[in-house]
């Protein structure tokens, strides 16, 4: 997929205020005071993270970082750095994060297990790793290919990989049952390359309802997974 098309989706997501707040509300109870945001993109949730403390946002794409810097110019709690996410994470040790946030990034990395292990090594005992990924390999279609996804995860698979890195899993759950049909239709039937902006903004209007409903209904599947890993204390 071209960077311009990826940027188009990120820009549409930047307008999805309710969706970004929904993700932030999931992360909020687990955030510390020094947050490393891996794959920050154009900064859609970075500002919210900074309400908890200092944030270092890293990404591989300078264009996204330029947009994020412009967007958050003047926020003294936020800084950005370009890094190769699969090779240069150990160079971030001097930031001393107590929380690592990884939203819709792990699926883009061929060596996801190695990245998880490096995140574990960056955190102090008790540090949290918060990861949000696309779910259900059966939904893998044209949009996944276009966005550069290597995989979609099952709950068991994600738990196993987080544990294999050394973390204890506080919880792991499926999210967004409603989105399963939309991703299947767009990616498997219509074979679209990107999520239409109109659909992103439509979902943004109803995400509050989906959030309320999912609080009470069991979620045997969902289009996404959210997992909280914790580095054990000695």
Fold and architecture overview:
- The chain is of the alpha/beta class.
- It has one domain (3-230): Vaccinia Virus protein VP39 (Rossmann fold, 3-Layer(aba) Sandwich), CATH 3.40.50.
- It has nine helices and seven strands.
- It has helices spanning 3-15, 17-27, 46-49, 62-71, 112-122, 142-147, 155-164, 179-189, 197-214; strands at 34-38, 54-59, 78-82, 99-103, 128-134, 168-175, 224-230.
- The protein has a seven-stranded mixed sheet with strand order 3-2-1-4-5-7-6, sandwiched between helices.
In total, how many beta strands?
Answer: 7
Main beta-sheet annotation: 7 strands, mixed
What is the overall number of helices? 9
Helix and strand pattern: HHEHEHEEHEHHEHHE
Highest-level CATH class: Alpha Beta
Mean pLDDT, all residues: 92
Describe, in short, the structure shown:
This protein has nine helices and seven strands, in the order ααβαβαββαβααβααβ.
Q: Which key features would you list for this structure?
A:
Rossmann fold, 7-stranded mixed β-sheet, 234 residues, 9 helices
Q: Layout of helices and strands, plus pairs?
A:
Blueprint: H1 3-15, H2 17-27, E1 34-38, H3 46-49, E2 54-59, H4 62-71, E3 78-82, E4 99-103, H5 112-122, E5 128-134, H6 142-147, H7 155-164, E6 168-175, H8 179-189, H9 197-214, E7 224-230
Parallel strand pairs: 1-2, 1-4, 2-3, 4-5
Antiparallel strand pairs: 5-7, 6-7
Helix pairs in contact: 2-9
């Amino acid at each position: 997929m071209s960077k311009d098309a990826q940027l188009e989706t990120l820009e549409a997501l930047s307008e999805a205020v309710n969706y970004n707040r929904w993700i932030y509300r999931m992360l909020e109870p687990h955030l510390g005071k020094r947050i490393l945001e891996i794959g920050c993109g154009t900064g859609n949730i970075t500002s919210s993270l900074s309400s908890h403390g200092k944030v270092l946002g890293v990404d591989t794409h300078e264009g996204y970082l330029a947009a994020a810097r412009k967007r958050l110019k003047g926020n003294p709690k936020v800084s950005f750095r370009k890094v190769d996410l699969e090779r240069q994470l150990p160079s971030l040790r001097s930031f001393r994060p107590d929380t690592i946030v990884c939203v819709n990034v792990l699926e883009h990395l061929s060596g996801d297990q190695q990245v998880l292990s490096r995140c574990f090594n960056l955190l102090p005992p008790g540090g949290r790793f918060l990861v949000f990924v696309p779910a259900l390999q059966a939904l893998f279609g044209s949009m996944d290919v276009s966005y550069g996804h290597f995989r979609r995860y099952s709950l068991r698979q994600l738990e196993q990989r987080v544990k294999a890195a050394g973390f204890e899993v506080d919880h792991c759950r499926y999210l967004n049952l409603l989105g399963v049909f939309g991703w299947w239709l767009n990616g498997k039937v219509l074979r679209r390359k990107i999520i239409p902006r109109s659909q992103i903004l439509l979902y943004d209007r109803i995400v509050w309802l989906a959030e309320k409903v999912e609080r009470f209904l069991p979620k045997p599947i969902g289009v996404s997974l959210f997992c909280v890993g914790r580095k054990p204390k000695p």
